[in-house]
Every structure is written in structure tokens, then in C-alpha cells.
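Entry 14. Structure prediction run on the chain below.
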Amino acid sequence: MKVFLGTMAFVVLVSSVLGCTIGVFSPLATADDRPMLWKNRDVPNVAQQYIYVEAEHNFVAITYQGIYDKVYGGTNDAGFGIVNTDTYNQGNWRSYGISDGEVMFIALSQCESVWDFLGILDSLFADTSVVLRSTHCYGVIDKFGNAIVVEATCTNYVYFNAASAPYGFLVRTNFAISGDDTLRRGWDRYIRARSVLEPLVPLDVRDVLETARDLVTAELDPNPLPFEGTIDSFPYGYISTENTINRYYTASYQIIVGSAEIDNPQYPVLWSGFGIPYATIPVPLWVNSREVPPQMTGSGATMCSDAQFIKGQIHDQPDIRLFNTQTAYRIHEFLSPVEENVFGQYYGYMSLWAKFGVSEDTLAYIQQDLCNQVAGRYEEVRGLFVEEHNYLKIQNISIKSYPNPFNSAVKIEISSPKNNFKHIEILDIKGGKVFETTLSPYTSTFMWEPSSKLSSGLYIVSVKSGEYRATSRLILSR
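Output returned:
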């Protein structure tokens, strides 16, 4: 779709409900000596689209469906790229004024360099009739190899050069380094992203993609998936994505590979994903193709709706933070062959085009072909859930115990998706086995009367039944 430049269920109360994670990479940090940008876009509005805009500088960008004059990350035909993230430690936001989406739309349509972007901010701040609505960190790159983070309040800004940073890159979440140091929302994601990326320098697109998919927190490393255990009071195999990089609020993600000063027309490239990175595949969009595939734009962006369907199969609990690692792993494995093919073709084409050049028509054709491959696989995923009765989903065993806490005996009731033998173990808090038994396929309950030698405290009942398994807590109170 082309756009022509004109005038301008469950509530989780946490300290960082909304916000994005971004990375800004100088050529010093990348495998092919080009600047790169990355953004995990964490917003509640999942109706996303990519658009191609014809302007002074044509560009491709991410925005909401139905919105064509505001964008939230993209790159233009001059090799200028921009992403951003909200910040909450740079002063109060306003209910009026120019939004970040409008600022980035102006920048992509006009800028060739990072200094052009700073010039736009200077002119906005100097105009007393103009009011900026909110505070942000902007990641900005250009074809001259510049890569900076601009920390902008509603009235001024400071910037940081990625080339001067350790390892040649910068990460931001929902706070500015120059802001209030007591309100650093997204700190966990900031630290985790840096710790993942630093050992991988020099980076390529796939390194950044794997970082975008990261599910590790300070409390838990669930890898390798599926997670075989329990944490907190969550069901077996579930983890929280409240503070992970790949979050329950991630609605789309972008990785931008910038241009060099003298370059072939296949650059820049915007790797464009919908939904959560772990269980979806990004598609390369070339600005110089001068279009976006129909599956990725407008109200008919089927790849967006398919990605949200996949997300719903993984975040399948009333508490939307919870991530079903067993289902996610199966979907990820099902998508992997297509992802490998997309990346393999991409690198093959880019190598060929570097030698012989490429036309706009060829870029558009290849872009559409790769998009079709991903869209087709998404349709298969939807079919396997809807038509094949959750073929990709591992159902969990249900365990009910009562009374709990208990004194002398507890009745344990087990519900399993299939009539298999059920092997039960009861473990103490140190993991020592204190009891085990096996129930026949058609037996679902048993009584446990712990030895008088066992002390009061927490015990774990673990059940395995064929491919299914679950754990639950018991509290013995003597």
C-alpha cells in the first residue's frame, strides 16, 4: 500500500506495564560494518501494519492499522532510520501537542543524517507555538555510519554516540540515562539485553533476532524450552513474561539494516515482524521495492491477525503475563524450517545483488515471495490448532488436593487428557523423594498419609502420564 505525504481483560499492576526495548548499533558492532536498529514494540493495541510512504524521502515504517500520518519506527531511501521507546523518568507527559509518532513521520520524510534529526528537534523546541507531548529515547542511524541515542524531554535533548560506547552499541528500555535515576522502568530488560548482545559482537540480524526472543529473567532461565518445572504458583511449564525482553505486550518488532554511503539499492532493509518474536518469523522489506505486501498492511493485514492468534495460543491463561513454554516451543519448531529458508534465500539474494545490482521490480517480487512463505506457514499453524484439535498444544494435567494445608491425610485428584498410567512422586523442599506410586489408567484419586517422621512444611506432588506432566504444592501442618 502506498501513502502520499500530506499535512500533519486482565489488568496487571506493575511498574512497567507499557514500553519498548530498542538497540542502536554502530558499524563497529556489526558483522557487515553497517549501522543497525532494533525495536520490540510493546503496546496493548495489537492491530499493527507496515506502510510505504511517498514523501521527500520515501520510507517504510510500522504503525497502527488505520493510521497513516504517524509512525513508530522505520527507514527511508536515504539510509536514515529511526526507532524509539517511551521513557518515564524525564518529567511529566502532556495531554496535548505533537506526538512521537508525528515526530518520526516528519523525520523519515525529511532526514538524511542523524544531524538532520537533531535539527528538526532544535526547530521544534525553538518554536514557542509548538508543544511536544511526551518523553522518549530515539535510536537513529544514517548511511554515513552514525548511530546515536537521543534522549528527548518535552523541551530539550541530549544524545549518546553508540560508537563511543563499550562494544559499539547502546540499549534503551523505558528510562533515559540522563533522567531521574530513581524511576528506571525496564531496568531488567536493559541489563539482560546488554548481557546477551555483548558476547555476540560483531552482530548480524539473527543475533539481534534471538535477543528479541529472549525469555530469561533474574529469577529464572527457562532454557532450553520447553521449561520442565514450575515457578511461583504458575501451572507446570509456564513462565512470566512481565520482565522478559520478549514480553506479553510485544505487538511487533523491527530490525533495520542500514545503508553505507556508497551502496547498492538493496539497502536499507527493514526486517518486519508481528506478534511475539519467539513464535513468529520476520520478513525483509526493502525500501526501494516501493511497496509493502498486502498481507502486512491495512485492515487486511492477515499476517498480523495470524501472529496474534499464535500469541493467544501461548498466552492462554487469564493472567496474560503467563507464557506456555510447551506450546510456544512446538510452534517455534514448526516455524523454524520456513525461517531458515527465508534467511537462506535472503543472504543468497543479497550476495548476488551486491555483484550484479537489482531492480525495484525484482525487490518487490522477492519481498512478496518471502512474505507468502511465512504467511502460508502461519495458515498451517492456525489450521493445526483449529482443525486438528490443538495438534501443536500439549495439554496439562490438572491436580486438585484437599484439604490443603492438611494435617494427617490429603486426597489428591488427578485429571489427565488421556487414560494412561499415572506415576506420582511426592518430594520434600530439597527435592528428596518421600513417596511414590502408580495409578492405573482409570484411577484418578488416592489418599496420601505421610509418615509421622515427616515434619511440617512444603511438599511437591509430581505427576507424569505419558507425554503429560504437572506439579502442585502440598502444605503439611502438624
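The chain has a mean pLDDT of 91.
Filed with the rest of this week's runs.
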